[in-house]
Write a structure and sequence with these properties.
282 residues, 4-stranded parallel sheet, 11 helices
């Protein structure tokens, strides 16, 4: 039996950079806080908590802070959070992913020119919430074809469409096409990061060949959920797990290929544990 792991599985550039910046502050002996979980992976968050890192879950908790260093996570935050930190005189490290920063710059610029911002992504996702906080005009989040079909722009209203960096690329294209057919004056910025597109494409290609697929990632990870959906559409025997402990795997002798992929917030050591377990035990 062959076990294949996708090349792009595991930490993406943005998450790796953010986690490294947290550890750098810890090594300097500072009291470190992250504004929201630094990554959508429970193992990563738990290990950082063991190093003394505290997660601030809300703006209210941030407002009560009087000391320490705050790490702005890779998902980014609304513009007003920077103002709050500076007004309080709290030291902060901006670990916003550069791909996310590009979206903030785009919506800031286009909304300042009067365009209404349409964010194609998951409503309530921290990256989307952060992006909404950089617009000068009201933003709307579109996630489904039904929402796109039901959307009606005001007469003469101009739109700028952006995407959550981890959104499904095919779905993004389909939703943009609905807006195009409506004949609106739109500017489209495909802000899905290249790493996300490659990760999804790799996983889909492997799942199409595999007898079994294992997708590893946190339960709150949007990009891992999308990987699972893509793999499940190609391979019926697809498992979604957080760690090796979650894997309840029974493989018949007919299985020839087991594929493994992982979300952007999954540490390499978890991927390796799953890979080694499957190779040794089956």
């Amino acid at each position: 039996m062959e076990v294949v792991v996708t090349k792009s599985a595991g930490f993406c550039f943005g998450v790796k950079r953010a986690v490294e910046q947290v550890y750098e502050q810890v090594r300097e002996g500072k009291k470190v806080y992250t504004y929201g979980s630094i990554a959508h992976n429970e193992t990563v968050v738990r290990e950082l908590e063991e190093q003394g890192v505290t997660v601030l879950e809300s703006r209210e908790e941030l407002e009560r802070l009087t000391e320490g260093t705050v790490i702005i996570r890779a998902h980014g935050v609304p513009e007003e959070i920077y103002g709050l930190l500076e007004a309080k005189g709290i030291e902060y490290v901006d670990a916003t992913c550069p791909f996310v920063q590009r979206i903030h710059e785009t919506v800031q610029e286009q909304s300042a020119q009067g365009r209404r911002i349409v964010i194609i992504g998951n409503s309530g996702h921290p990256e989307v919430e952060g992006t909404k906080g950089w617009t000068k005009t009201p933003a709307i989040v579109i996630e489904t074809p039904e929402q796109a079909q039901n959307f009606e722009a005001k007469k003469g209203e101009k739109l700028c469409i952006v995407a959550q960096t981890t959104f499904n690329y095919k779905k993004f294209q389909d939703l943009v096409e609905i807006f195009r057919k409506k004949g609106y004056d739109i500017i489209v910025a495909n802000t899905i990061c290249n790493a996300t597109q490659e990760r999804q494409s790799e996983a889909t290609r492997l799942a199409a060949r595999a007898d079994v697929m294992i997708v590893i990632g946190g339960t709150h990870s949007s990009n891992t959920r999308k990987l699972y959906e893509l793999c499940r559409s190609e391979c019926e025997n697809t498992y979604y797990i957080q760690t090796l402990e979650d894997l309840q795997l029974e493989l018949p002798n007919s299985v020839e290929l087991v594929g493994i992929t992982a979300g952007a917030s999954t540490p390499n050591k978890i991927i390796e544990e799953v890979q080694n377990y499957v190779r040794i035990n089956f």
